[in-house]
Amino acid sequence: MTVALTHVDPSTPIGRVVRDLDEVRRPLDADDGVAVFVDVYREVTALVAQRVTDGTFDDPDFVEVLDVMFAGYFLAVPKALAADRPVSKAWEPLVERRAARLFPLQFALAGMNAHINHDLALAVVTVCAKKDRDPASGSIRADFVRINDVLGELVRPIRRSFLEKTVVQHGAALSPLADMLTNFSMEKARDAAWASALTLWTVRDVPFVRDITRQTLASTVGLVSRQLLTPFDPLGQLQGR
User: For residue 182, what pLDDT is reported?
Assistant: First the structure.
């Protein structure tokens, strides 16, 4: 699964995020599960950087801050690994299975699951608190939804390419992976992230409830990633990895 690199102005906040992602990616092997996710996420971030400047969003300044905060939650993962510290339960499955013989698509989906369903909810709450904004106020929800369309510009072609070139070629043998790909909906993931963000926002001032809610969210998201990373190799395609 290859992704073309898009240039982003490195002097902008999101441009610096792209630079950080490039630095994280540089030492990793191509088949490392973390690298597979970074390849996709780097292009998603670059695309958001373009849309922040072209009038796509009602409040581009808020979206830019949100995108940088959002990326920071993922960038904390390689930093934790480098320091030999534990990562969030949401990211544990991908980190633990990053060297496993799996299809690249499985790593990409597990990364998107952890980043959207866990990190995005935390980022929304953090930025809203920082800016003293209620998530339901102004254009926050509308711009949040618009990001779906931006993601779709990149993610849909990747999905279609896999379904057409691999599953169609090999038929029923790869139908479980086709089902996994088809059933993972970016829109549903972001809807879930929004619901989680509203929940976390509501309980943000009740420490015990806030903490248990965050722990439960991380564990639940991690469980889904473990399912996405279930090994199977019906065609023996991965034996040489």
Answer: 56
Sketch the domain layout of the chain as residue ranges: 13-228
CA dist., res. 15 & res. 45, Å (int): 9
CA angle 238, 222, 192 (to 5 degrees): 115
Q: Which of 122, 44, 113 is nearest to 76 (CA)?
A: 122
How many CB atoms sit inside 10 A of residue 73's CB?
A: 20
Name the H helices within the chain: 13-25, 33-52, 60-82, 92-96, 104-114, 121-131, 140-162, 168-170, 175-183, 186-202, 207-228
Distance between CA atoms of residues 168 and 163, nearest Å: 6
Q: Which amino acid is at 225?
A: S
Which amino acid belongs to residue 110?
A
The tens digit of pLDDT for each residue in 208-226 reads 999 999 999 999 999 999 9
Q: What confidence tens digit (pLDDT) does each residue in 33-69 have? A: 999 999 999 999 999 999 999 999 999 999 999 999 9
Q: Give the separation between CA 132 and CA 128, rounded to whole angstroms.
A: 6
Check: CB of residue 163 under 8 Å from CB of residue 184. Answer: no
193 touches 145 (CB < 8 A): no
pTM confidence score: 0.86
Distance in angstroms (rounded) separating the CA atoms of residues 104 and 82? 23
The set of residues, in sequence order, having a beta carbon less than 8 Å from that of 190 and lying 6+ positions away, is: 116, 120, 144, 145, 147, 148, 151
Question: Residues 6 or more apart from 151 whose CB is under 8 A from it?
Answer: 44, 47, 186, 190
